[in-house]
Amino acid sequence: MNKNPSYHVITLEVPVSEQDMAQGILYQNGCLGLEEENANGNNVKLRCYFDAQIPLSEFSPQVLSWLPKATITHATSIDLNAISAMIPTFEPVEILDGIFIIPPEDVPHTQTITSGQTLIIRPGMGFGTGRHETTQLVLKAMMKHGAHAKTLLDVGSGSGVLSIFGSLILHIPLVHAVEIDEHARVNAGENYILNNTSEIIQYSGIQEIEGRVYDLIVANIISSTLMYLKPKITRAMSQKSILILSGILETEKNEILEAFSEFKLVEINQQKEWLSFVFIPI
Question: Which of 58, 63, 70, 221 is a Cys-bridge partner for 14, taking CB atoms 3.0 to 4.6 Å apart?
């Protein structure tokens, strides 16, 4: 791991017609995470995160060489060690009835939770703190469908919220978390310690769990990554497995239904523009 870990954060504007190809190229070239923003009718903005292995002044031209039709609208570098300082307070949030995500004691906050169950999460850059609609959709589905699971696979685990929930709240004995971003794994590792769930095993790539099957599989990742990883995710399913997917926009609903048509759809849930899906084998 870098001694002074940091990210390059690049915001690109690309034609809508080039969006899927651009996302694939960005991930092939080391993109650690990607957020979509509306630009205008013909273009879309993509905010991308990369390890800052070379200076930003050298890295930005490389990005444009990969995507000749793109333009960079904003580029900056963020020191990972400074991220917590950028967040003035981190207040508890109730993710389900009586279940709260709270910050560690050393993170500024004004509210204190005195009852219910708590998960302790240290805020990090884009690693997930339970506040996003997609995370909450998965948590609700896990609570509803994961009560009898003995094994859990969390694909794109980020800060470890879903893994910790599975271990701490659902009491799943074996939890495996897959996350490609080294910094996110460090963040998650600390969160596992804070929650006394250090038995959760982290992997840096989904190929590392090849040959295993799980009772419950959750993947809260953007649809393009989900589609890319689909063969490996579904190979980890048995005839009794439950698959929960989120990170999917309402406009992507039909694409997901078609891609997973060999499975039985149990339910679809929605918060704002975000969807979650629950599938089981037919």
Answer: 70
